[in-house]
Amino acid sequence: MKRLLLLVLSVAALAGATRLRAARRAEAERVAPWEVLEVESDGATEFHLVRGSSQRLFLGAVDLDAPDVDEQLRSARHVAEQRRAALQAERP
Questions:
Q1: Comparing 89 with 37, which gets the higher pLDDT?
Q2: pTM for the full model?
Q3: Distance of alpha carbon 89 from alpha carbon 68, whole angstroms
Q4: How many other C-beta atoms are found inside a 10 Å radius of the C-beta of residue 73?
Q5: How confident is the model at residue 79 (pLDDT cuts 50, 70, 90)?
Q6: Contact status, residue 37 vs residue 49, Cβ threshold 8 Å
Q7: Is 55 left (phi over 0), alpha (psi -120 to 50) or beta?
């Protein structure tokens, strides 16, 4: 009888701890800041906004072979930063 009680209490404690970890992880994702992520892929630089590990928004890409690549990268970074700031301002 004591073993059964101990088993039930152990399972309940494990379930509670798992649920608590999931709630903390969800809260951390909810309050995580938006960040600009630049990824080089197939001769282009892609711009994404990321928040935590689950949210990723594609903003656009710049072809690295373009004649005015420096200006396009500067412009894309500026737009990405503006969008990041706007999303960050909307955060709860």
A1: 37
A2: 0.66
A3: 32
A4: 16
A5: very high
A6: yes
A7: beta
Residue 17 belongs to what H/E stretch? helix 2-31
- Measured in degrees and rounded to the nearest 5, phi and psi for residue 11 equal -65, -40
Tokens matching residue 76:
């894309």
Q: Is-contact 64 20, C-beta < 8 A? A: no
Distances (CA, A) of 8 to 16, 20, 22, 77, 84: 12, 18, 21, 55, 48
Does residue 85 surpass a pLDDT of 60? yes
Structure tokens at 51: 């928040």
Amino acid at 3: R
Q: What amino acid is encoded at 55 in this protein?
A: Q
DSSP string covering 25-54: HHHHHHHPPEEEEEEEETTEEEEEEEETTT
